[in-house]
Amino acid sequence: MENQDQVCKNGCKAACSENLAAVEDALYVIAGKWKLKIIIVLQEMGNVRFNELQRLIPGISARVLSNELKDLELNGFVKRVVHAEQMPVVVEYISTDYSHTLKPVIMSLSQWGKTHKRKIKEEML
């Protein structure tokens, strides 16, 4: 019986460790103040130019937005499209199909956030 308990504990520890590592990997890619906001705006708005994107995300600086877009592009969440045939050259950013795999996660976070806000407000009354 003791050996069976030990195996279960070790199995659970391995599963827990694996889950922690997976969550850490996910958060490394999308964590921070701006990344999810950028992804959400691009998913909702479609093709968005840099200045418009900056206007749609209050408080983000051009430098930070540029760096976050590069990170998101590197990780396959954003595609940078250059329309060189137009004058002046137009650069747009779009969310990739891969970024849409985050949609259920974003919706769950959104619902949880609304529920949490309600809970906190109720506790304050």
Automatic annotation (TrEMBL):
Gene3D superfamilies in UniProt? Winged helix-like DNA-binding domain superfamily/Winged helix DNA-binding domain
Secretion signal, residue range per the UniProt entry? none
Pfam families given for it?
HxlR
Name the InterPro entries on file: HTH_HxlR, WH-like_DNA-bd_sf, WH_DNA-bd_sf
Q: Where is the HTH hxlR-type domain?
A: 16-121
Disulfide bond keyword on record = no
Q: Which UniProt keywords apply?
A: DNA-binding, Transcription, Transcription regulation
| The keyword DNA-binding belongs to this UniProt entry's keyword annotation | yes
Tell me the protein's name.
Answer: Helix-turn-helix transcriptional regulator
Organism expressing this protein natively = Chryseobacterium nepalense
